[in-house]
Amino acid sequence: MRRNRIIWLCLWVLSLVGISLRGGAVTYGFFAAVTLVPAASALYLLAVYLLFHIYQETEQRFVTVNEPVRYRFSLVNEYPLQFVGIRVRFFTSFSTITDLDDETEYELKPHTRTEKETRLICRYRGEYEIGIKEIEIQDFFRLFRVRYRNKECVRAVVKPQLCKTDRLGDIELSDAVRASERSRSELDVLSREYVPGDDRRFINWSQSARTGTLMTRELTGSEHREIAIITDTFRGGAEQSEFLPPENKILEVTLALSYYFSRNDICAAEYHLAQDELVRLTAENTWKFEEYYENISLTAFSSQNTHRLLYEAVMRRGDVLGSSMAFLVLSSWDADTDALLKELERNDLSAVVCFIGDGDDGVPDLSDHKSCGLIRISPYGELAKESGK
After folding, report:
1. Pairing of strands 372-377, 350-356
2. What's this model's pTM, rounded to 2 decimal places?
3. 218 confidence band (pLDDT: 50, 70, 90)
4. What values do phi and psi take at 143, rounded to 5?
5. Which of 322, 350, 332 is nearest to 232 (CA)?
């Protein structure tokens, strides 16, 4: 393109010299033709911009992270004007197009269309635009190039990936669960009023809420309590590039933990904050896991779901404190999350913090927490291959 501009400029200078030295119809005609070339190119680009159309579609609107889906687009010319030098630029931040690149030039003769079909892979959970992001057009003389945003973008709703793994980072999940087991008595269905000095872990919170009196369970045999998975739904960034990767990995870790517990018949419950209330989800077995997966996929993140509200919601509900152990899945750490961890420890719960982040910035300092493990997970890596630090 630069070479063509230099050639045009040289021709224009020569035509200007010609009319200055000789004049005549030929030299003036040549000067006028060369001078009008940029104007003709600009009009051509305007016509292409107004008349050119793109149609694109995916095999399905709801897709899953890292699962290829069929993607098709069509470049259409419905008018008696030939389109040359057309390029399409794809969204690459959150999705990948296979077997196609941004450097391919397309030429459309009058009343023709070009169709391409390939595979598209989404990398993060969320709702965002995929496919063709921008269109680049050139004129016949290749003097000018115009790039503009595609007016017919496709939005995809992407669900998190289910990673079936027995370990996170350098921690075997079976070891973490085994370490939390205690020789306890089984809690009978009978309850009595709480007496100062009774173990707070045996408080029957649901019955206490119904009766308005603090109630504690009777003991008869061995206890089987569930594991709590506390999922952080705080959104810390304003741009999609900031919050999509950690949010995607948070849900991926939550699903990996839940599926491990489900297929090993370990009682577990997931808790997350939604509209100032603590939501509880369970998947007792793999037969019900699909419904559980759909509910986790719909988890909403918000800047209003602060750690302070999460801490207060856990304290109000109380059933988390009656768990056998807890996994905290989060991407930021502050005084409120530290206070929540201390409250878990005061109730004799061992905990594992699954921290989503790159580098050393914001990593929790757990030196004051003796019964807590830490798993560091990158928001950009493959969960099953995370090495842990």
Report:
1. parallel
2. 0.79
3. low
4. -95, -35
5. 332
Whether the domain at 52-159 and the domain at 167-184+225-385 fall into the same CATH topology: no
pLDDT of residue 173: 84
Question: CB within 8 A of 347, min separation 6: which ones?
Answer: 200, 201, 321, 322
Long-range pairs for 291-299 at CB < 8 Å and ≥24 separation? 292/258, 292/262, 293/159, 293/162, 293/255, 296/160, 296/251, 296/254, 296/255, 296/258, 296/270, 297/125, 297/159, 297/160, 297/251, 299/231, 299/233, 299/251, 299/272, 299/274
Task: Delimit the domains of the chain by residue range.
Answer: 2-49, 52-159, 167-184+225-385
Task: With cut-offs at 50, 70 and 90, classify the pLDDT of residue 185.
Answer: very low
Decide if pLDDT at 26 tops 70: yes
Q: What angle do CA 348, 350, 352 make, to 5 degrees?
A: 150
Fold of 167-184+225-385: Rossmann fold (3.40.50)
Local structure of 283: helix, strand or coil: coil
Domain 52-159: CATH superfamily is Immunoglobulins (2.60.40.10)
Residue 115 main-chain phi, psi, to 5 deg: -115, 140
